[in-house]
UniProtKB/TrEMBL annotation:
<dbReference type="Pfam" id="PF04134">
    <property type="entry name" value="DCC1-like"/>
</dbReference>
<dbReference type="InterPro" id="IPR007263">
    <property type="entry name" value="DCC1-like"/>
</dbReference>
<protein>
    <submittedName>
        <fullName>Thiol-disulfide oxidoreductase</fullName>
    </submittedName>
</protein>
<dbReference type="InterPro" id="IPR052927">
    <property type="entry name" value="DCC_oxidoreductase"/>
</dbReference>
<dbReference type="GO" id="GO:0015035">
    <property type="term" value="F:protein-disulfide reductase activity"/>
</dbReference>
Length: 130
């Protein structure tokens, strides 16, 4: 089953998150696309009807998840103790997404922003959709 992560390609926090997942995904299960890319926009529209830059999106087969649910579902597949964070799904979505939204709204102020989307290194290029 294909596992795709959509992220804000100019957000430093989001780019850190992608690097974090890559380092903890030795099976190379995840593929990545920035929401600003053509494929990212198409996937966002297909799953949500619009493009939302303030949301982390995880697509697993025909299912898609946003915000805190997406992040926790990804954690389930990571190497190490990170998979234990999956249990936080027991917290109601509105509560989790309230805190997610606070960080998402202020992510550029807190972590900075790039002028353009990250370009993957040659060894990571196969993991990024284009």
């Amino acid at each position: 089953m294909e596992k795709i992560i959509l992220f804000d390609g100019v957000c430093n926090l989001c780019n850190f998150g992608v690097q974090f997942v890559i380092k903890r995904d030795p099976k190379k299960q995840f593929k990545f696309a920035s929401i600003q890319s053509e494929i990212g926009e198409k996937l966002m529209i297909k799953h949500y009807g619009k493009v939302e830059l303030d949301s982390f999106v995880y697509i697993e087969g025909k299912n898609s998840y946003k915000k805190s649910t997406a992040a926790l579902k990804v954690c389930k597949h990571l190497r190490g103790a990170w998979k234990l964070l999956f249990i936080l799904l027991i917290i109601p979505t509105p509560i989790r997404d309230f805190f997610y939204g606070k960080i998402a709204k202020n992510r550029y102020k807190m972590f900075g922003k790039k002028d353009s989307c990250m370009l993957p290194s040659p060894e990571l290029k196969e993991r990024f959709l284009s």
